[in-house]
Amino acid sequence: MAQNPDLNSIFASVEKMLADMKYGSITLVIQDGKVVQLEKNEKVRIK
Fold first, then answer.
1. Which residues contact 24 (CB under 8 A, 6 or more apart)?
2. In angstroms, rounded to a whole number, what is the distance separating the alpha carbons of residues 45 and 7?
3. What is the pLDDT of residues 25-46, one digit of tens each?
4. d(CA 42, CA 25)
5. What distance in Å separates the CA atoms of residue 39 and residue 3, rounded to the nearest whole number?
6. Residue 42 contacts residue 23 (beta carbons within 8 Å)
7. How confident is the model at residue 5 (pLDDT cuts 50, 70, 90)?
């Protein structure tokens, strides 16, 4: 199954977000069956 070029850029963005964070969450916002927004909620642990 060939991937949509838009999906490739979304996956690349998610991978970059994952590489830059240690704790938190990433949310994909879907509208009309398409990803329209990525949200990154990062938590900072204070020792």
1. 40, 41, 42, 43
2. 32
3. 999 999 998 999 999 999 988 9
4. 6
5. 22
6. yes
7. low
Q: Determine the length of the chain.
A: 47
43: part of which helix (H) or strand (E)?
A: none
| Token pair for 11 | 């996956």
Three-state DSSP class for residue 35: strand
CA-CA distance, 18 to 40, in Å (whole number)?
A: 9
Hey, what amino acid is at 15? E
Query: What DSSP element (H or E) covers 40?
Result: strand 34-42
Alpha-carbon distance of 46 to 32, in angstroms, equals: 40
| Contact between residue 26 and residue 32 where contact means Cβ atoms under 8 Å apart | no
